[in-house]
Amino acid sequence: MNEKEETCSPTGVLEDYFRSSDSETCSSKEPNNESDAQKNSRLSSRWHNFVQLLRRRSKKPLNTMHTLNVLNLSRRMSASMKEIIASKFGSDSDCDLKSPWKNFTFYELQAVTNYFGHENLIGKGGYAEVYKGCLRNGQLVAIKRLARGKPEEITADFLSEIGIMAHVNHPNTAKLIGYGVEGGMHLVLELSPHGSLASMLYGSKEKLHWGIRYKIALGTARGLLYLHEGCQRRIIHRDIKAANILLSEDFEPQICDFGLAKWLPEQWTHHTVSKFEGTFGYLAPEYLLHGIVDEKTDVFAYGVLLLELVTGRRALDYSNQSLVLWAKPLLKKSDTRELVDPSLADDYNSKQVNLVLLAASLCIQQSSIRRPSMSQVLELLHGDFSCLKYMKKNRMPFFRKASREELTNAEVPKTQPGMN
Questions:
Q1: The domain 102-190: what is its CATH number?
Q2: Which residues form the Protein kinase domain (predicted)?
């Protein structure tokens, strides 16, 4: 590799600027209670009808539905969420469930997962289990089974997640093909033989080529940008991690598992949540300390994901060592060779690696206001530094060096990254 392509510290790009920045302040405007009350009143019957329709579609009575307190659920769910679900499935009590997805029976789900056998278990979280299955037509699926919690909480989580997925449609988000409400709450998603990014990075004997890793970095960034800015309502995923990135046949990344996702009203700057949920190793400092959730929460987790793609290391290894804490000193010393996954040897595009490390170092900043937006991240990954021009160049040593090395003019593919 050309020595000129070795960068100085990516973390040092904004070091001086960060040092002189004001401490982060984050506030939220009060939601319009009168407006919310009006929406709750207007949509109360719609919400009740949706629950009734789900109940009628099941051939067997749902034990979980019998314990559902609709009024309590309505208070817990936002009016915007109810409106999305009502508009997606219809609101008339005498209509059938107008769903674009297949309603699987419990017998069908058992059949495709070998009765939810352990050998088909491909993922497990605090509140759900994910099983691999194969439909009669040969299509591979991932079946998410909500397995823990009180019955009414499981139902609320199911409705929340399916409501968000009803609103999401992007090449870099997972495709929901069905659901099941017999014997519990189930979501059925498309699955390719590649499985998740975690399984490919850590469970496969064959290591991912750098070109594929770079493609995954770009696609995941596009998916997050869509969630944050492309949807009709802002969606904060809250659980971006390697296990929640599915890979299509051509290794196109698809963000999945919206179980912790939050709607963020336009007039709010953030949510403040009291219930601690998420995956250690990916959690942003402001969430750990104050329960603050906004787009920058996802940006931090995405930065950790970028470090995983470069290093081949887990966000939290088996000795509970944090990848972020391990990588930060190496980023500051510009020890690129130590950061890059040894399995790649020298078979990688050093300019692309430098861009990914630069983006990662900015995404994992402790203060959320110092992190870039996902639109800025995409610009950086494509070698476009124009988003950094609002900062003085004399405070950006890495920017000056990168400019001298004509990194901004590097031929970085925008769609299909090349292999070395």
A1: 3.30.200.20
A2: 116-385
